[in-house]
Known about the structure:
The structure holds 2 protein chains of 2 kinds. Chain A has 2 domains: 12-42, no CATH class; 105-339, MetI-like fold. Chain A has 14 helices and no strands. Chain A has helices at 12-15, 19-22, 53-82, 102-107, 111-142, 149-161, 164-174, 181-189, 204-229, 233-241, 246-274, 278-283, 295-304, 309-339. Chain B is an all-alpha fold. Chain B has one domain (3-63). Chain B has helices at 3-8, 13-16, 19-38, 43-63. Chain B starts with a helix and ends in a 5-residue tail after the last helix. The interface between A and B is medium-sized, with 18 and 22 residues.
Amino acid sequence: MASRMPSKVPGEDERQPYKDTFAIAPRNPRNRPGSIETGEPRHAAAGVRGLSDRAIVRLFVAPTILILLAINIFPLLWTIYLSFTNYRANRPNAEVKWVGLRNYERILNKEDIWEYLQATAHFLCWTMILQIVIGFGLALLLNRRFGGHSFWTTVILLPMMLSPAVVGVFWTYLFQPQTGIFSYIVNVFADVGPLDMIGSVALAPWAIVMVDTWMWAPYVMLICLAGLRSIPDYVYEAAEVDGASAWRRFWSITVPMVLPFLMLAVLFRAIENFKMFDMVVELTSGGPGSTTELASINLKREAFEKWRTGYSSAFAVILFVTVFGAANVYVKAMNAVKRR
Amino acid sequence: MNRADADATPRGWKRFFRRGPWENAATVLIAAGVVMLMQPYFMVLYTFSFAVILTGTVGFVVVSHFPE
């Protein structure tokens, strides 16, 4: 009996090395091809309801596209439409008049808005410079793997995990001229008397730069650290064999190889800081006067305090096009760096 | 120049509408527009900054579809 029924076709194991994984049940003519019982590959779910693979792909992608259209594209197009009108959100029944380019004309001829954009530029430039320098420096230090470096990495990352509103509130207390610890520490080193960081026209723009750097330099550090850890040791070893100095190794290996990571961190932070709102509102509310009134703070005032929806929509469109254009240029530069 | 080289060389409008130089021009426009928007010296530059940025951005989106 056994001799008439060979248990195995010669060479079967060689042809189907993963047979045991897929073939749960013995082959049965009633099992459909491609079912889990047979383990045969087939196009997923094809023929189940007469849908092609392409149709199934569209079916799965459709909800995402619909949500994207509803919460991203439609509001954007609606904002662009509103920017050409005199619409006010607190008067929904009032007649909406088409005003053409008048909102844009008013914004681009108003000195106040120009000053808010300058304040935004000051904040953006200095936070980026300081965060790059401090973030990269911390990453270089933590990359040395000294004892307890994991603990210090966690400690340094703590500010990043806090809510910007919370950071704004507690730095307000730290910056208090009479009772705040910041003024006390500065006076230990230099006898300048009570230091009003958020009440002084000269110091308030630097106070928001300082707090943002304190909060987000760890983020830049984290991304730089990932870049530093991705550099293989043999590159440094080869450079050492060739007699390259530590300075040369830094400029010719470390910086070029970390640069794409650093640029990515700067892109993320620059877009965020261009829209900075919550932390600065909690810290200074745009004051003293309008010294720290960033573009997004003014946008919120126009939209939800003065209820000039059409006007603020035009301002939002200007900011959006600026960020979009600048990000395009930046991504192009980043790709060029990656290709080197 | 052999025939293969002659075929590979873009001619006419294809030579004119190459992505590289147009993308560079759009990039320069955007960068100039952003500087104009945020510089603290001349109001007139601020006034025309958005027009420059918009031209550059729309141009960038269009020319990034040009052939290499």
